[in-house]
Specification:
The protein is an alpha+beta fold and 860 residues long. The protein is built from 18 helices and 42 strands. It starts with 7 loop residues before the first helix and ends with a helix.
Length: 860
């Protein structure tokens, strides 16, 4: 085959010795396999293409490991990497060199039969091309191979180093690690194994470099984009304040309490501009460095800079302090929400949804503590606004999904605020009683119809240090007369001030103020100071009037029903506090491990949580500390919905976890377990499932419990009911029966009790239907009590607050003999298990329609 000069394959072969006999390289591979029994391809040498291939196969045999393979000389050089690769250069992964594999093995994904070499499940975890840095064969001989990867998950420079000493028989021991480059990431920030656990055949990603924007200059990324030089300046799109949302397709985001910025990237030149075009790059150097680490050559990013407080909520006062402080500015975070330009493409004509999709691809796997993607919130605007207000956030942004990017204020971007909140020009101040250099109140104004008008005053929201700083800022600006009209005694808050107590100033300082509403004489009331704004000139400060855009519908009331979850959860604004705190001393699992677990299983667990009242088991001090069972909104949890109190009269409102944001918000608040009712909100009085909790007493073995579960299944079949098992995450098993929601809780509980009593009466040596440890010695208690109104059972995929942190896992009946116990899967292993499964053992559960009518007749 002809080779192009300079190709990776030609570089690898540049100083190659004579090739070995054709059959030798794969002899060991073929000898270990019976190809009449395994679907793995037989080993034959194969000519390659212009570029060298690599593949990483995730392989669960006797244990989980990753098979790392590099093509060279017609075979795949192969290493088993027990703990997998990491983008963190500090992580050195042991890699054991094994026999060469055929190039055709790159396409193998499936089951290797038990009894065969490597028996277990194999998926293609990553694939792509590799390029050696220098002579590949010489590097292998010396035990040091440096190379670049261009895959769907892995990219950048990597290194393999042999660690066996010369002459040591164990020459197969190597280390695989990431070289320091733009792709390197601390594992504490990003764990690629957890973030992207699935098969790239089943869930293709596209090349990582393209997703990060490195290939953006080769072609417009989407139809509708046009080629254009990167402009030197860019005016931002601005939102209109409204009190209602029109019908249509809207994207809802958090409204950040921060400063708007636009970031211009041109090669190594990163510039950060305010909304008015002021260059703040020097003030935000750590942020500029974070943007540079993306490795993007040409782009404009649009977003908001914030500083998060201890609860993970943006705080504009902290932001102002951080901007002017050389050490605190490392706390500034940019939440990017739009991408007007990328590469040589002007994306402004594209729909917002397409631009955000490209931005998400650009940041995927590259987010950091300082640079994050602003996620869409998956619920109606009214519900999200209500949740944002409870969390102390400013409000929500509502953006038209199919609209282009337009500089200036538009009605395709809208903002809904929890409180009335805007910037004001400071037109004067009063002194704090008994202090000559501290502010007692700020006198405020705004521009309208060419005039500077008084708006009232604010006298709270700062501490003593801020009060002194405000005085130092305003005192040099003092003038003799008010710069505004209508700033006189007898009007609004002015009437409550002693005449002559005002110190008037030139209207050059801008502050942000939250307030309750406007009085009839156009003064603000219930005002609270939020911070000084240095990103906006006083001359541009006008009164914001909330309006209804064309075709607006009335503002929605907080909904009791959330939209379907996003395909992937995103922590969004959530700051994981105490991320490294160990919550299970028996395994060393940390809080961040739990959060990452729930992020990774969101698409599996949410169908079991959505629209069901939920009880939360919280462990603020870890599973060895005190546990709290929370059914009501004792304190706000980000995204968790408070249900209508009328659903369960004479009780406090119940909670529901309907979205990925709610799931992660709960995990951030130290929630480990999720327990749900047997009914959904739409038919709260009528259960849609029955749960039999098989709880083994002292002395009951696991095989005995499996036999009991099978007996339970047979009994239910005789009663005309299909059932599905799941592990409890603890000692037992749950047998779950889906039913059509026609009967009330009392009827369903009575039926479940009758089934349990029947089993205990017919097989008394195995079953008991009476509570209490003394009744259960050597027997299994069929817990039917979970079927009463207000009772709960642990949700599928929920972790358990027990040593080892088992997970409640839905399984097929045929799988039960393969399990080791009710905690067969844990937080550490469950997601990898799911990534290796192609079928859902509960796929028929959701569509099953059945009632207890036949069973009731038979049990009479």
């Amino acid at each position: 085959m002809a080779r192009k000069p300079g190709s990776a394959r030609a570089a690898a072969a540049a100083t190659a010795p004579a090739a070995a006999p054709a059959v030798a390289p794969l002899a060991r591979y073929n000898a270990k396999r019976d190809f009449a029994k395994t679907a793995e391809p037989a080993g034959t040498l194969a000519p390659g293409g212009e570029r060298l291939q690599f593949v990483i196969q995730k392989h669960w045999a006797s244990h989980l490991h990753y098979d790392f393979r590099l093509e060279l000389d017609g075979v795949m050089l192969s290493w088993a990497v027990p703990k997998g690769p990491s983008f963190d250069p500090a992580v050195k992964s042991l890699a054991l060199q094994v026999e060469d594999h055929p190039v055709s093995y790159n396409r193998f994904e499936g089951e290797i039969p038990k009894g065969q070499y490597g028996g277990g499940t194999v998926i293609i975890w990553d694939r792509g091309h590799w390029s050696p840095q220098g002579d590949a064969r010489a590097g292998l001989a010396k035990g040091k191979l440096v190379f670049s990867l261009d895959g769907e998950k892995l990219a950048g420079l990597w290194e393999l180093v042999r660690i066996a000493k010369p002459g040591d028989k164990r020459q197969n021991q190597w280390l695989l690690f990431k070289k320091r480059d733009a792709w390197a990431r601390p594992r504490s920030e990003y764990d690629v194994l957890t973030a992207l656990p699935d098969s790239v055949v089943q869930k293709p990603l596209g090349q990582a470099a393209q997703r990060a924007g490195r290939a953006a200059s080769e072609a417009p990324p989407e139809a509708g984009a046009r080629r254009a030089a990167l402009p030197a300046t860019l005016a931002p799109q601005l939102a209109t304040l409204v009190d209602s949302v029109p019908d249509g397709h809207w994207i809802v985001e958090s409204k950040f309490d921060g400063y708007r910025v636009l970031v211009r990237i041109e090669g190594d030149d990163i510039r950060i501009f305010t909304r008015n075009g002021n260059d703040w790059t020097d003030k935000l150097k750590p942020l500029a460095e974070a943007v540079a680490a993306l490795g993007v050559n040409c782009a404009w990013l649009d977003g908001e800079i914030v500083v998060l407080d201890d609860a993970g909520v943006p705080n504009v006062h902290r932001l102002q302090n951080a901007i002017d402080h050389r050490t605190r500015n490392k706390d500034i975070v940019l939440f990017a929400f739009d991408l007007p330009f990328l590469g040589d493409s002007d994306l402004r004509a594209l729909p917002l949804q397409a631009r955000r999709g490209l931005l998400q691809q650009l940041l995927e796997g590259r987010e950091s503590a300082r640079l994050r993607f602003s996620p869409a919130l998956e619920a109606p605007p009214g519900e999200l606004l209500s949740a944002a207000c409870k969390l102390g956030l400013e409000g929500v942004m509502v953006k038209q999904a199919d609209a282009p990017y337009v500089s200036g204020r538009t009605e395709t971007w809208l903002k809904l605020k929890c409180q009335l909140r805007q910037e004001f020009a400071v037109i004067g101040f009063t002194l704090r009683s008994g202090a000559t250099r501290q502010i007692g109140s700020l006198l405020l104004g705004y521009h309208e119809d060419g005039e500077l008008r008084a708006a009232g005053a604010v006298g709270t929201g700062w501490d003593s240090a801020t009060s002194r700083a405000l005085h130092a800022l305003l005192a040099p600006l003092e003038i003799k007369r008010s710069p505004a009209v209508a700033a006189k005694a007898g009007s609004g808050r002015w009437a409550r001030r002693k005449a002559g107590s005002e110190h008037w100033v030139k209207p050059e300082v801008v502050v942000e103020v939250a307030f309750g509403d406007w009085t009839p004489d156009q003064q603000i009331r219930h005002a609270v100071f939020r911070g000084v704004r240095t990103d906006k000139p006083a001359a541009e400060i006008v009164r914001e009037h909330a309006k209804q855009p064309a075709s607006a519908a009335p503002a929605p009331k907080p909904a009791r029903k959330a939209a379907a979850p996003a395909s992937k959860a995103d922590p969004g604004l959530m700051k994981v506090t105490n991320a490294q705190r160990v919550i299970d001393p028996s395994t060393g699992l940390r809080k961040i491990d739990l959060v990452r677990y729930y992020e990774s299983v969101a698409e599996w667990i949410l169908p079991h949580l959505q629209q069901r009242p939920v009880s939360l088991v919280r462990a603020p001090e870890g599973i060895t500390g005190e546990l709290f069972f929370q059914k009501h909104a004792e304190r706000s949890i980000a995204g968790v919905t408070e249900l209508d109190a009328a659903l369960w009269p004479e009780h406090a409102p119940l909670l529901a976890v309907n979205t990925p944001q709610a799931l992660l918000g709960a995990a951030q608040m130290n929630v480990i377990e999720f327990h749900t009712w047997n009914s959904r909100v739409k038919s709260i009085e009528r259960p849609d499932r029955i749960i039999f909790d098989l709880d083994p007493g002292e002395g009951v073995t696991w095989p005995a419990l499996l036999e009991a579960a099978e007996l339970m299944r047979v009994m239910l079949v005789e009663l005309g009911l299909q059932s599905w098992p799941k592990t409890s995450g603890g000692k037992g098993l749950h047998v779950v029966v889906p039913i059509t929601p026609r009967r009330d809780y009392a009827q369903i509980k009575a039926f479940a009790q009758a089934v349990a009593q029947h089993m205990a009466r017919v097989i008394p040596a195995k079953f008991v239907a009476v509570m209490g440890p003394k009744h259960r010695v050597g027997k299994i208690f069929i817990d039917y009590l979970r079927n009463g109104q207000g009772q709960t059972a642990v949700a599928a995929f929920s972790a358990r607050a027990r040593p080892g942190m088992g997970v409640s896992m839905p399984v097929a009946w045929e799988q039960l003999p393969e399990l080791s116990g009710g905690a067969h899967w844990t937080v550490a292993t469950a997601r990898d298990y799911l990534s290796l499964r192609k079928d859902d053992p509960w796929s028929d559960y959701w569509g099953t329609k059945q009632t207890i009518t036949q069973g009731l007749r038979m049990l009479k």
